[in-house]
Predict the 3D structure of the following.
Amino acid sequence: MQNGSATRVIAACLGLCAFMIALIAGLYAGNPADEIVGMGLVALVVCQIVGVLVGMGIESIVRERLRAGSGGGAGPVPAESAGPMSE
């Protein structure tokens, strides 16, 4: 995956889910169509912005963990140094 692609996918999924939920909730409440679509678009934009922030955070964490794990020092713990539970 390219840098930023996970962020875009997360943001799009979150925004579209919010739009769908807003549409269903508006229909269920019996609101007029223009109000339903308007609130759906607001929910889409707000949740897409939240999704971008969440996606950037997740990508940052994954990138950091991959960078830290590529040092080669992380391996299985030997049995003699496993701690008190190994007895």
Observations:
- The CA atoms of residues 12 and 84 lie 48 Å apart.
